[in-house]
Predict the 3D structure of the following.
Amino acid sequence: MVDATAPEERRNLSNPEDCSREARRILQDNDRGGYTVPSPALYPFQWNWDSCFVALGWATFDEARAWQEIESLFNAQWPDGMVPHIAFHREDSGYFPGPDVWGTESLWDGSLAVQTSGISDPPVAASIALKLWRGARDRDQAQAAAERLYPKLLAWHRWFHSARDPQSDGMVAILHPWESGRDNSPDWDAALNPVPTDGLPPFERRDLDRIDADQRPRHDQYNRYLSLILSLKGAGYEPKAAYDASPFKMVDIGTLSILRRADRDLRHLAEDLGHKDDLAELQDWEARGDAALDRLWDEQAGVFRSYDLSAEAMSDSATSASFLPLYAGNPGPERTARLVEVLQRWTERTAYPLPSFDPGDSRFDRLRYWRGPTWGIVNYMIAEGLSENGHGEWAARLARSTADLVRQSGFWEYFDPISGRGLGGDRFTWTAAMWLAWAKHFAED
Ligand code: GLC
């Protein structure tokens, strides 16, 4: 398989200063002028939540570029408020499914500024924007950027709370596993089973040209991913028609938690900027989010789970997203303590936490994408939640684990939680950003 960095060019990453230099270089190398691609060969476009995390990395050495990263993402926003998970700013045949498959070009009378996918992504943008805003050194620049972004963020959140929660009970749905950002998590296995795959047009995956098949989703899953896209496209991506037509409707505990925190952070931004008229609406969303999170607690297992709205059943998996309600806000001391017990069990089995899936489950796969490996961005969010809920020691442990992974193996997309080996794409942008914005502060001598 192709390794983006020839061994002789590899920096010595055991020294934190060298790591930071290399991380900045990765951001600069993957910069396409206003937006950063996650990995030039594997993911050659702008990805939604990647760009938000990456903005935190830019902010450590170029604040203007950090704001630009988020603003370029919102240039791809749809008129109904949806912010797509991919913005195809330029042509590149190296990725499947490209814009021809999504077929969004003719939507909105062809008025979209950029070609895009037709699904969304976990809405971390408001939480990242609040961090940039509160930490900004250039206040005038921050004021102008935050004012421009605020109405766009609000429109996106409104889209989630209407298009994806038609009952208005807080059970906000995703209609495709990719909307969770955790593409092939075992969370989706049961819900994907009934998705029809007959009569699909032939297609060629491009990811396997670059990455070993044992680190990527299986073919039967890819068939279902494509089938779901075609069902949404068949509904013209019209929110109600798409929701009704989709055979896949999950309340993802990850997306729900991220949205819950983002609603709160958007309210803080509204307060800071003086948008008082929006506060009641934002508070209403927060209350609905709390009610939905409460429904997803599994008292017996001591974790939160995702929920399949079509089958009316809880997911049978505990994944790294089961801990994201800590990031959402405050699950309360008892539930927090139960979550920490599970965290303890998982870390006893993995030298480099946090695995994306329960290492005690027979389906655990230490190499395969979201079915076992450790991801820096997930560690970052869970660590934020742990430290805000009185578990600073655990937060530091996840940060140190992330720093160790980078220093030992490099800036990989994800890592084997048992050996620490780097997996997926190398010189990966969000891993570099997480080093700069967070993990480097916990690197030990
Ligand atoms: C994969 C990941 C997703 C990420 C994208 C680009 O699809 O599952 O979370 O946004 O790659 O890095």
Notes: Confidence is low (pLDDT under 50) at residues 1-9. DSSP finds 16 helices and ten strands in the chain. The longest strand covers residues 86-88.
